[in-house]
């Protein structure tokens, strides 16, 4: 079965409502049965799927998801929001600044844009509505700033990309710092421009005493990024071990310091984390089966040879890959897209001399934009659900913030020093 036939079969299965993970498994089995070798590796199906889903780095995914759920249940998120409000709330459109700032903080623990928008949106969107912000603006700024969660470390899409491509997860995390902070700053400028245009209100006047009080209250919460990222970047712990530290620290701070995390809340957070993890890991297992077949019939190598036959210019290839991943992001969740597509294009990336860490940031940003663009737009839909707003009305406002993300994509793609400077300085 050709790659085009597999793609059409997958599309047809998804369109009729079959979950992507199941559709991947069906496509893989169909490809094996109709392939040149008959059943191919079909007898080893269970073993291939098991091996694909038992990679040690992937353990970080449920742990980061659980840490984010515990943060939200134990008052940590609320304290971070209060501190951000004290620091930037005095600016015109201050609550939108608070939303972006809180996303920057929350991104450093959860690694998930959906978790970010669900946790912060439930608090900040109603608060913005009470202050007179439109539903569309409140949902748009919450949704787009949550995408920073997949750029700023730790990032679940980066972990999956690292496993699929064989790249260093630590280097991917480091490469995301500068683009993530720059993106946050640019989103604040856009939010300020829109706030002046629509005369959105300021919060309280700036008070140094309030900043100090909220900082002292959020002090323990602010140590979480230092514990997680400090341990990972220093080399004391791996990304997976850092995720474990995030869970332990969240439980200790939420339960013993803030005393807001009880067993019922912890149980609910664990169930939520388990459900989200099951979705991702089933995707990983099914994609491993399809990937095994595609590798056997040399599809990745054929794709690389085909594109290299058209052009060998590195920047043109990056342009083609950007267009390709932006298109994929319209229809697939980021985890599914990375798992399905990255192993296919990696031979092309290597043949073109593109640094795999640099390419990882490009993929992550492309798929982050896909989280904001219908029809799938998982993060945008979540924000609209919280705000009870129409997706298309929110999308009109969100174009401003998507413009920031596209600008960052172009900057990261064609000025590699932006994501790679810290990597080159500290790890190479």
Task: Write a structural description.
The protein has two domains: 40 residues, no CATH class; 379 residues, no CATH class. The relative contact order is 0.15. The chain is built from 22 helices and no strands. It is globular. With 428 residues, the chain is an all-alpha fold. Helix 6 runs antiparallel to helix 7 and helix 12 crosses helix 13.
List keywords for this structure.
428 residues, mainly alpha, 22 helices, 0% strand, globular
Secondary-structure map:
Layout: H1 3-15, H2 20-34, H3 45-52, H4 60-73, H5 76-88, H6 94-110, H7 113-130, H8 135-146, H9 156-165, H10 169-175, H11 177-198, H12 208-217, H13 219-234, H14 239-257, H15 263-296, H16 299-310, H17 314-329, H18 334-351, H19 356-370, H20 378-387, H21 391-414, H22 417-427
Coarse shape: globular
Helix content: over 70%
Please report which band the strand proportion falls in: under 5%, 5-15%, 15-25%, 25-35%, 35-45% or over 45%. under 5%
Integer tally of domains: 2
> Could you list the spans in which at least 5 consecutive residues all have pLDDT below 50?
none
Radius of gyration: 22 Å
> Strand-and-helix sequence, N→C?
HHHHHHHHHHHHHHHHHHHHHH
Query: Structural class per helix/strand content?
Result: mainly alpha
Mean pLDDT across the residues is 82
Count the strands? 0
Helical stretch tally: 22
Distance between the termini: 42 Å
Query: Which sheet architecture does the biggest sheet show?
Result: none
